[in-house]
Design a protein that fits this description.
The protein is of the alpha/beta class. It is 41% helix and 21% strand. It has 5 helices and 6 strands. Strands 1, 2, 3, 4, 5 and 6 form a 6-stranded mixed β-sheet that branches. Helix 1 runs antiparallel to helix 2.
Length: 153
């Protein structure tokens, strides 16, 4: 699975301006709605927020992977959001999240996101890739960093 099969400049938010976890998720879902990927976001927002209350999607090192299924989509949909100042996602290491990869799976393939997140984790654990993504000023620069990593891997 190629990361760029699901990521493009239109589904990268740079910078994500959010005050907290709920605001961040709402802005990411609104971005998907504004790009005509979703029609409604209220139920998804509620579902993701409830999941976050039970178990934070933050994995540490400033990264969170919120996820849900949606009846509005037919295939895995991903959106990458980068926060310069960081957002409190209740990370196990108490760091603020700067990298948020929200994934939505179709109801027909509810576990497809796991392969994608695994590939993304393999990429983002490379300190040079991570730094270049975090320092990027434009979404096309992020695409180029990911493309170079995928070409090498």
């Amino acid at each position: 699975m190629k990361l760029l099969n699901k990521l493009s400049t239109k589904n990268i938010i740079l910078p994500l301006e959010a005050q907290n976890k709920s605001d961040a998720i709402k802005k990411i879902l609104t971005h998907l709605q504004n790009n005509y990927i979703l029609k409604k976001t209220t139920n998804l927002l509620s579902y993701i927020e409830n999941n976050e209350k039970k178990n934070s999607s933050a994995v540490g090192r400033g990264i969170a992977y919120p996820h849900s299924t949606s009846t509005e989509i037919n295939e895995l949909t991903c959106i990458l959001a980068l926060s310069k100042k960081g957002i409190d996602f209740n990370c196990p290491d108490n760091q603020l999240c700067h990298i948020i990869l929200l994934t939505l799976s179709s109801k027909f393939e509810p576990n497809e996101h796991r392969k994608y997140i695994t590939r993304f984790r393999n990429m983002i654990k490379n300190p040079n890739v991570r730094l270049k993504i975090l320092e990027s000023k434009k979404t096309i620069n992020i695409i180029n960093v990911i493309q170079r990593w995928e070409d090498d891997n």
